[in-house]
């Protein structure tokens, strides 16, 4: 190595940082080099540079281009006792940080959150969405997040941020009094509430949550299936409408199967049979004799039990009809 190469490695006369997507902070690589008197410092838009002397934060540089001397390094000059200026190279730690908004980040509830819904009772809710943040309080961020690291990226702190979001969401949803249906219907208002709940956790690390969006609020598949069934029953209403509903479902299912038109006939017959089995016990009148004699009592009981299972009839209604059918068995 020539003496010129050695000197080139030892002295720094151009200092800048070209950040890449996801970068948050960088400790400028000094190694064993020193900064030349009159070195050029470039701080790009959205960046800020800090000079440290033996671990103490000294001078701060905002976007612009600077020629380093005692005029623009007043604190470092004081710390180094450069009362008459300096002409020789000097050693200093330089950190760059970005104020750029880090957007398009995803969050989600790894496990369903149990909430006490005022309409449906206890429910397990999942939520997903996106958020963005930026560094707001750089001294706090430098101490609590950057430390002595050479470089810090979004992916390094994302797990910590998602943990804070999950905690805030569990607290907010678990203690809320808004019904699940209203949550799903007003995601904009929910996004604002959760952003406010998340912000204190971000602020403790010197960050600002600049945007927070709830993109989906859902129930686990098994819970959603039961809710759909209950909704269907509420829409159906009385028994006659339920029979028509069941018949229509049977026809649709049979038409999609290989049995085709024959299957439609069988499905319609099954739906009518359910209606006949229920018309006497629930409606309060006597059941037609043809219905009682034309179908096996045990088969009717089995169908009644299915209606009980999906909530179409009450336990009392089931017990009354079962007793009547059992009385016909000789």
What does this structure look like?
The protein has 330 residues and is α+β, with helices and mostly antiparallel strands. The chain contains twelve helices and twelve strands. The protein has helices at 3-10, 74-80, 138-146, 154-174, 180-185, 187-203, 221-236, 239-256, 260-279, 289-293, 297-309, 315-328; strands at residues 11-15, 23-27, 34-43, 47-53, 56-61, 64-67, 93-98, 102-108, 113-117, 121-135, 151-153, 207-218. It has a five-stranded antiparallel sheet with strand order 5-4-7-2-11, sandwiched between helices. Strands 8, 9, 10 and 12 form a four-stranded antiparallel sheet that branches. A hairpin with a 3-residue loop joins β9 and β10 (121-135). α4 packs across α6 (187-203) and α8 runs antiparallel to α9 (260-279). The longest helix has 21 residues, at 154-174. The model is unreliable at 261-265 and 277-294 (pLDDT under 50).
């Amino acid at each position: 190595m020539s003496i010129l190469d050695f000197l080139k490695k030892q002295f720094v006369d151009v200092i800048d940082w070209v950040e890449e997507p996801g970068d948050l902070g960088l400790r400028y690589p000094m190694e064993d080099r020193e900064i030349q008197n009159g070195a050029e410092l470039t701080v790009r838009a959205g960046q800020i540079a800090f000079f440290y002397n033996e671990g103490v934060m000294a001078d701060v540089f905002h976007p612009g281009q600077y020629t380093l001397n005692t005029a623009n390094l007043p604190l470092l000059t004081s710390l180094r006792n450069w009362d008459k200026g300096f002409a020789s190279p000097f050693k200093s730690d330089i950190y760059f940080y970005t104020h750029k908004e880090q957007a398009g980040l995803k969050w989600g509830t790894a496990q369903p959150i149990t909430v006490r819904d005022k309409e449906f009772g206890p429910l397990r809710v999942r939520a997903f969405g996106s958020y963005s943040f930026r560094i707001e309080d750089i001294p706090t961020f430098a101490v609590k997040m950057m430390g002595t690291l050479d470089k810090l990226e979004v992916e390094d702190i994302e797990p910590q941020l998602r943990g804070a979001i999950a905690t805030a969401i569990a607290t907010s949803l678990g203690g809320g009094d808004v019904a699940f249906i209203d949550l799903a219907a007003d995601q904009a208002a929910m996004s604002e509430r959760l952003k406010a709940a998340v912000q204190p956790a971000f602020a403790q690390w010197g960050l600002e949550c600049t945007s927070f969006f709830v993109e989906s609020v859902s129930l686990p598949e098994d819970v959603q299936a039961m809710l759909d069934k209950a909704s269907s029953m509420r829409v159906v209403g009385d028994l006659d409408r339920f029979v028509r509903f069941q018949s229509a479902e049977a026809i649709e299912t049979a038409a999609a199967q290989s049995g085709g038109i024959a299957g439609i006939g069988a499905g319609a017959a099954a739906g009518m049979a359910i209606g006949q089995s229920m018309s006497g016990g629930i409606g309060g009148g006597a059941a037609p004799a043809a219905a009682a004699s034309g179908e096996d009592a045990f088969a009717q009981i089995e169908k009644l039990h299915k209606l009980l299972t999906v909530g179409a009839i009450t336990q009392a209604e089931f017990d009354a009809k079962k007793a009547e059918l059992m009385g016909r068995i000789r």
